[in-house]
Amino acid sequence: xxxxxxxxxxxxxxxxxxxxxxxxxxxxxxxxxxxxxxxxxxxxxxxxxxxxxxxxxxxxxxxxxxxxxxxxxxxxxxxxxxxxxxxxxxxxxxxxxxxxxxxxxxxxxxxxxxxxxxxxxxxxxxxxxxxxxxxxxxxxxxxxxxxxxxxxxxxxxxxxxxxxxxxxxxxxxxxxxxxxxxxxxxxxxxxxxxxxxxxxxxxxxxxxxxx
Length: 211
What we know:
Elements: H1 24-56, H2 84-88, H3 92-120, H4 125-151, H5 165-168, H6 172-201
Helix pairs in contact: 1-4, 1-6, 3-4, 3-6
Protein name: Cardiotrophin-2-like
Pfam family, one: PRF
Subcellular location: Secreted
């Protein structure tokens, strides 16, 4: 399965979400932010395909039709859950920062999961390719988020590597569970990010965005 990687490499040069301006440069930058909204919606579709494909190749109980283990958590994987009112009241800086921190963590975990699957399912090219592409998508999104925050003069918290060799040690079943939690939670975060950008996009100059 092949997906366009060009969309994942969008880099936003400058923008402001707080004012409506007729300045050509600002309008152009705002249009690029709108493109990022389209990017995360594209990632949202791919996240569903990734989760379904991952489960299909892990064997029972993961591939069983009645499999449902959404309440499983794995240490270090950032949950997307947030109370609705708290989410509504997030400032732009907080909203972008939480996304940045979450995807910085997923950037590491997705690489780990792909390494796990290279051992567990070395011949499942479709799954391995999806994990590779998703990793590139996250890299592109992190680049976009960084550019937006810099342009808005928001602080960008540089994250550090959180996974150690000791922390990633696991048996085969634990690796499958870890991969499931990562793929599911990544999907939940993408769903949240789409909502976040839908909220932010309303602050852009109207001519720069069309649904």
